[in-house]
């Protein structure tokens, strides 16, 4: 499954230029004119004019990319539904086989980067079904189309130039390289700039081939996580039980406390002992106080640089714990959530009340959760950030 909520890590890792700021091709407008502007920008930044001409010779605008960018309905599912859809028995079995077949690569990764196999297996499985479904969008077309579109041009314009650099290195073909609609390439779906910065030749053939080489893909993914702040050999997520009553407003990524402090509030590990006694951790209640509950350690936040969807990241992090031996989570008995249309109605009401909820998209993201928590507190309701039809009616 391609990562459809793009991380910002690539933009943050932008290729710095020592020269004065150069004019960038403005987004929108005539596509041919936009391409000409990109070519001029690439040459001004030091790319070979002949290589630039060859790279852009086959590039075309792809309207299906824009349609895919506007289509995000799967992320309107609640955590339990989303997790059950993505974590199939087949993915569990294939993940276990891949852990064995790539054991030597995972050992190298753990030694070099401190990233456990489960994390990489989870993204490998979700992004491409372990390499089986890598996407059939022409990558150069996708990147240029999204750079031309004015929704997120500053994210995608550098990706076009990074793909040009990969082409000059012999590791990208603008006519035939394919991947996800948003420009990610290979088994773990990395953007061109991430490949330039964090690509690793894991199999020693002199190239970084994320589409065909599992060692290259896995070691590059681990290097990227490390660069984004992954703390070696530390936990990321642990399932917990919560009491019937507590200060629910303390749940959420905005609050971090030690395991001892959480335990004093009645939070306990669902099984075994705490993964860490000292690391600060956040209590996550994806479906409110009656649903699943997890403690998220600092490494959990690093995963948002891979994908910005809260539900996707939580599901991937949980899948990684399953692949490392954790049991199936306790779904609990959460209150009914909102449909997509109801969520849009809620977001509109919250926005009218002065809350910043971001895009009105029917997705329960971090901003909407924060607003819901604040409204629940003001109404004297359990402030667990889980919106219900009853809350919508109250507003």
Automatic annotation (TrEMBL):
SUPFAM superfamilies membership: Lysozyme-like (SSF53955), PGBD-like (SSF47090)
Keywords carried by this UniProt record: Signal
Residues making up the signal peptide according to the UniProt record: 1-23
InterPro entries with a match to the protein in the record: Lysozyme-like_dom_sf, MltB-like, MltB_2, Peptidoglycan-bd-like, PGBD-like_sf, PGBDSf, SLT_2
Gene Ontology BP term (one): peptidoglycan catabolic process
All residue ranges annotated as the Transglycosylase SLT domain in the record: 31-320
GO MF annotation, one: peptidoglycan lytic transglycosylase activity
Domain Peptidoglycan binding-like: start-end pairs: 339-395
Taxonomy, superkingdom: Bacteria
Protein known as: Lytic murein transglycosylase
Classification of source organism: Bacteria, Pseudomonadati, Pseudomonadota, Alphaproteobacteria, Rhodobacterales
């Amino acid at each position: 499954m391609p990562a459809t909520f793009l991380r910002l890590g690539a933009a943050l890792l932008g290729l710095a230029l020592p020269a004065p700021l150069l004019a960038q091709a403005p987004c929108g407008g005539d596509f041919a004119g936009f391409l000409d502007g990109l070519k001029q920008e690439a040459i001004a930044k030091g790319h070979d004019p002949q290589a630039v001409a060859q790279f852009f010779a086959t590039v075309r605008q792809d309207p299906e990319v824009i349609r895919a960018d506007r289509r995000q309905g799967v992320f309107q599912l609640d955590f339990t539904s989303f997790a059950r859809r993505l974590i199939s028995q087949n993915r569990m079995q294939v993940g276990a086989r891949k852990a064995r077949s790539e054991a030597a690569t995972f050992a190298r990764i753990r030694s070099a980067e401190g990233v456990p196999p489960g994390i990489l297996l989870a993204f490998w499985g979700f992004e491409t079904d372990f390499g089986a479904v890598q996407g059939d969008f022409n990558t150069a077309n996708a990147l240029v189309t999204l750079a031309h579109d004015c929704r997120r041009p500053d994210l995608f314009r550098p990706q076009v130039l990074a793909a040009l650099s990969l082409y000059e290195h012999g590791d990208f073909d603008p006519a035939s390289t394919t991947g996800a609609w948003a420009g990610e390439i290979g088994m773990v779906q990395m953007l061109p700039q991430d490949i330039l910065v964090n690509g690793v030749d894991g199999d020693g053939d002199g190239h970084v081939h994320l589409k065909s080489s599992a060692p290259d893909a896995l070691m590059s993914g681990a290097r990227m996580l490390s660069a984004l702040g992954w703390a070696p050999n530390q936990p990321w997520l642990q399932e917990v039980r919560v009491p019937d009553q507590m200060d629910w407003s303390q749940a959420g990524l905005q609050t971090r406390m030690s395991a001892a402090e959480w335990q004093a509030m009645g939070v306990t590990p669902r099984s075994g002992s705490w993964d860490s006694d000292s690391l600060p951790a956040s209590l996550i209640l994806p479906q409110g106080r009656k649903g699943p509950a997890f403690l998220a350690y600092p490494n959990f936040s690093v995963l948002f640089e891979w994908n910005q969807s809260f539900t996707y990241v939580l599901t991937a992090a949980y899948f990684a714990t399953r692949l490392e031996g954790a049991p199936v989570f306790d779904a609990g008995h959460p209150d009914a959530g909102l449909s997509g249309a109801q969520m849009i109605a809620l977001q509109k009401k919250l926005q009218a009340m002065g809350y910043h909820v971001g895009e009105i998209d029917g997705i329960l993201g971090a901003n909407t959760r924060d607003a819901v928590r604040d409204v629940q507190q003001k109404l004297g309701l359990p402030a667990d950030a889980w919106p219900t039809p009853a809350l919508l009616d109250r507003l």
